[in-house]
Amino acid sequence: MFERFRSLFDRKVEAASQLAPVAPIKAKPGMRSWPAFFQTTKPADAVITRPERRLVNTDVTTYRNGSGTHKVLQDLVASSPELSNAVYTAIRIGVPEKYVAVARDMDGVLNVEATKLLQTLLTRFDVIGDPLEGYTGHGSIKSCSESLARDAVMYGQMAAELVLDKARMPYRIQPISSTVVQFRPDGNGVKPIQKVGSDELDLDVPTVAIVQLDADMLSPYPTSPLEPALKAVIFSETFMADLTRVMRRAIHPRLKVTIDEEMFRKNLSPEAQMDEEKARAEMASLISQIEQQVNTLQPEDALVYFDSLGFEVEAPTGSASDYETLRDIANAKLASGSKTLPSVLGLESGSSSSNIASTQVALYIRSVDSSVRQKLNEIYSRLLTVAVRLMGVDGYVSFEYEQIEIRPASELMAFKQTRQMMILEQLDLGFLTDEEASLQLTGKLPPAGFKPLSGTRFKAPGAGAAPAGSDPAANPSNDGSTLNQKIKSDQPAQGRGQNKKAENVIPLNMGEA
User: How far apart are CA 332 and CA 162, in angstroms?
Assistant: First the structure.
């Protein structure tokens, strides 16, 4: 009887330690969202008008009268050199070249077959797409990432849809502009929608993923990271326009003409000598003629005049320190508002030391990494999880771009070698499977016929591995760091991570052939 009761309790504990399986995803074929440049879901069969801002002849400060913050941001990012550079640099740095995508079971164990399926899907997204679809605008993962990163930097949100074909199989990822996503109350929460003219498209589907940057709990809408820089941009543009006018008036040299009034009055007509109004009219006519002649002079033209006129070049006056102070104020506000380094914006950063500059670069890289790269990892993991679950896989996907590095690839080789040795050490001890080690090292699964190495202690002495002490560089070092820039390269003398306690070390005689 006691054994029977104990078996019942054991069964209850076992059942409570496992979660119920996740329900299968139900999705409709086709694309639920709509391109943001369409104003209706039934556009006319005509050529789409190309947007033209005519920036050469347009006063940038007039963009402050736009219809909304999103419109002002679009215009200023397109017209302001500082904001444009801030967005461009964040995209270039925040979207690395390589990525690793892994499919796992719900308990975190790597699923080899699902990973093969996932890599096949990504290859189709990148290279093939849907041959019957034609032009889509956003084909590869790289192109989608650039569009999504631009939205994250400009509007604080990125949204995308996993588009399905008629067989409900995924064949591409379609970015959705954050400017067209709206939210409607739905019970205790909200659901996303897109309004296209008079039509309302429901985006509350599992194939649509929306990720916000620093989401505000008091509003479902995102806050643009660049919004605090708008006034700074207007101030900077106004300052530059005023500086242009001042430069023409005070900085450029001007030709000053002096008229001998006594001589002029002696040569007036008899009527003008008797009538003051006629005298003023003749004087105004003479001044107008002189202005026309002087203002149309070319630098190579000679100036010939009577001694009743006097010409001299007026030297520029004024102090430049006042303008430098205003310029520094404008530059500081631009850098703070756009969350970008002054050096990235092309602004002078002052006489700071190399350590301070290195710290600023490290902070900027951290900012771009958390606001662009990690958010891309999040949205792709969600979309690709939906993709593999639609293919019948009971698991999830972990998508990760490689870490952001600004150092040359040749300088990173020794660091990559160190990482490789650490991964091989874990593979040697059995803490990593062969597939996980291959994905971390190459980004792909092991090739066919690969000999399993996990837990075989292939790096142990006598197992066929090269002795750890056989390397001539016996003292690896890493001089310098990210926060302490030096002229000397920070590349290690050799990769670290070898087993220094390995026995049977064979010395290498460099003098022998």
Answer: 41
Residue type, 84: S
Cα distances from 146 to residues 118, 153, 181, 227, in angstroms, run 21, 11, 19, 20
Q: Which residues of 210-234 are buried (b: 16+ CB within 10 A; e: fewer)?
A: bbbbeeeeeebebbbbbbebbebbb
pLDDT tens digits, residue range 25-44? 777 777 888 888 888 888 88
Which residues on adjacent β-strands are paired with residue 184? 191
Q: What is the pLDDT of residues 266-324, one digit of tens each?
A: 778 888 878 888 888 888 888 888 888 877 777 677 777 666 667 676 665 555 565 67
Q: For residue range 96-153, list pLDDT tens digits in order.
A: 999 999 999 998 899 999 999 999 999 888 887 666 666 766 678 999 999 999 999 9
* Residue 381 tokens, joined: 């993991």
The SS3 of residue 288 is: helix
Residues 311, 403: Cα–Cα separation, whole Å: 67
Q: If you ran DSSP here, which 8-state letter would residue 402 be given?
A: P
Give exposure, 340-378, as e/b (b: 16+ Cβ within 10 Å): bbbebbebebeeeeeeeebbbbeebbebbbebbbebbbe
Question: Residue for token digits 């379609």?
Answer: 174
pTM of the model: 0.74
For the chain, the straight-line distance linking the first and the last C-alpha, in angstroms and rounded, comes to 81
What is d(CA 119, CA 133) in angstroms, rounded to the nearest whole number?
Answer: 21
Select from 363, 369, 310 the least CA-distant residue to 335.
363
The residues, ordered by sequence, that sit 6+ positions from 158 with a Cβ below 8 Å of its Cβ are 148, 149, 151, 152, 175, 178, 210, 211, 375, 376, 379
CB 173 within 8 A of CB 194: no
Q: What residue segments make up the domains of the chain, in order of their start?
A: 22-43+55-251+319-406, 253-314, 409-513
Please give the average per-residue pLDDT across 472-484, as a whole number: 48
Residue 400's H or E segment, with its range, is: strand 395-401
Of 487, 346, 482, 339, nearest to 407 by C-alpha is: 482
- SS3 letters across 450-471: CCCCCCCCCCCCCCCCCCHHHC
Provide the pairing of β-strand 254-259 with 309-314: antiparallel
Dihedral (Cα; 52, 55, 57, 62), 10-degree rounding = 100
pLDDT digits (tens, 9 = 90+) for 224-245: 998 888 888 888 888 777 777 7
d(CA 350, CA 355): 14
Average pLDDT of the chain to the nearest whole number: 79
Residue of 197, 203, 143 lying closest to 173 (CA atoms): 143
